[in-house]
Amino acid sequence: MSTEPAHTGTCDTPRCDEPAETITPEGYVCEACAAKLAAHYESTRERDADARGER
Predict the structure, then answer these.
(1) pLDDT tens digits, residue range 19-29?
(2) CB 24 within 8 A of CB 34
(3) CA 21 to CA 6: how far, in whole Å?
(4) pTM of the predicted model, to two decimals?
(5) What is the dihedral of CA 26, 32, 38, 44, to 10 degrees?
């Protein structure tokens, strides 16, 4: 086991060079991109629930 600190790579989102911090279905992304993805996932979930008449 290494005693060296872990180094994160850069965000997997195109045109984003921030350090990656979070693993998502879209890849390893920075905090800002993870928040955008979470908002997108939530809006999609709500749209799908509306389409199924669950609201």
Answers:
(1) 999 999 889 99
(2) yes
(3) 11
(4) 0.72
(5) -80
| Residue 49: both structure tokens together | 């629930």
Domain-by-domain residue ranges, the chain? 9-55
Token pair 């693993």 is found at 23
Q: How far apart are CA 9 and CA 22, in angstroms?
A: 11
Tokens 């195109």, residue located:
14
Least Cα distance to 8 among 34, 38, 33, 29 occurs for: 29
21 closest CA partner among 39, 42, 35: 35
